[in-house]
Amino acid sequence: MTTPAYSPGLEGVVAGETAVCTVEGGLSYRGYAVGDLAEHCSFDEVAFLLLHGELPGAARLKEFNTGVAAARRLPPPLKELLAALPKWTTPLDALRTAVSALGHFDQDAADNSHDANLRKSERLLAQIPVAIADHYRLVKGLPQVLARQDLSHAANFLYMLRGAEASPEEVKALDVSLILYAEHEFNASTFAARVIVSTLSDLHSGVTGAIGALKGPLHGGANEKVMDILLAAGGKDGAEEWTRAALARKERIMGFGHRVYKTGDVRAGILKAHARAAAEAAGDATWEDTADVIERVMAAEKNMYPNLDWPAGRLYHAMKLEIPLFTPIFAMARIAGWSAHIMEQLENNRLIRPRALYKGPDRRTVKPIAER
Ligand code: ACO
């Protein structure tokens, strides 16, 4: 048996084929540049594109939105389960549990056909924001807010969370962030989902595993850590000194660096303008000014550039969303990409089972227990 080539962290390894998205020549979803989508489409249209392969016309979009909006509710026992979770359960952990539990209630749970997976994907797209908002309000002791069927994915989420409609500017900024978060090729959480369903497991199991992978601070969890960095830097005046000292201590500046993008992440550039506009609308650009200083130091000292989490963390903070909601919001968008990849994997499946380079002891024999 020949020893396969080894690349730590699978860096540079092509681990499968996809028609959903590419990072080659600039990030695009199903052939459309992400900047083009962010400028001309809503998240709802982009979710349709990812799930169905084409952008919808007006009538098809209306039909899709009506179906998704009608599914914006949780089975009553799931609300009881969310209420029974310990009060210290983080919103992302609660969401992971909710998605796992939703599998029990889905009539298509065990059906892995394309049509059934499409129905489950659209239901999860609808249910995930409801689960996040319901858990948030339960923990705060606030009355539940029923979903609105006339609002978009982004607008309905803000409405359910706050109990009041958000401004068009806030809805637009959140919507753009959701488009940018919706899909990203073989990132860790999507790859985890594909590995899970490659065993012919089900879609809810794949998404539950993906949420677990998203949680870590090297992946989606970074958007929550961004505010820790900015708060620790303390403002623009001390930011340069703080960043240099953190780098000297070999600390990671969360929101910077990327496995694939070494000269910058186009998504970060697009969302930066929205983060500053939201901060200025809220009357406090402190963290935008601080971020600019940190960006300059990171480019000069490490030749390292922001990823999408860097402006997203600031945008959500400027919108007065609480930090533990940031990664669940990422999940609320990435569900579109996860589902598209799960369906694609199952359409041309082969079990994902790589090899390991063995580093353990040489072959030895078992001694009787009295001699060990
Ligand atoms: N700040 C400071 N140094 C960094 C950073 C950072 N953000 N990222 C990487 N480095 C350094 C590492 O310490 C390492 O240095 P060394 O060679 O002296 O040990 C070197 O750069 C290479 O780091 P790796 O972790 O091997 O690079 P990799 O390609 O595996 O990592 C990753 C990519 C995980 C994103 C990394 O850049 C990181 O940890 N960034 C911070 C977390 C973050 O923002 N994650 C979000 C990813 S994007 C997303 O989910 C939307």
Description of the structure:
The structure is a single chain. The protein is an all-alpha fold and 372 residues long. The chain has a domain at 222-318: Orthogonal Bundle (Cytochrome p450-Terp, domain 2). It is 58% helix and 2% strand. The chain has 16 helices and three strands. The protein is globular, with a radius of gyration of 22 Å. It starts with 20 loop residues before the first strand and ends in a 25-residue tail after the last helix.
Care to give the gist of this entry?
This protein is an all-alpha fold and 372 residues long. Helices cover 58% and strands 2% of the residues.
Top CATH class of the domain at 222-318: Mainly Alpha
Mean pLDDT comes to 97
State the end-to-end CA separation: 33 Å
Strand residues, percent: under 5%
The CATH homologous superfamily of the domain at 222-318 corresponds to: Cytochrome P450-Terp, domain 2
According to DSSP, the number of beta strands is 3
What Rg is obtained from the alpha carbons, in whole angstroms? Answer: 22 Å
Helix residue percentage: 55-70%
Spatial sequence of strands, sheet with the most strands: 1-2-3
Low-confidence stretches: none
User: Helix tally?
Assistant: 16
Order of helices and strands: EEEHHHHHHHHHHHHHHHH
Hetero ligands: acetyl coenzyme *A
Cα shape: globular
At CATH level 2, the architecture of the domain at 222-318 is: Orthogonal Bundle
**What is the structural class?**
mainly alpha
Please summarize the sheet with the most strands.
3 strands, antiparallel
CATH third-tier fold name of the domain at 222-318: Cytochrome p450-Terp, domain 2
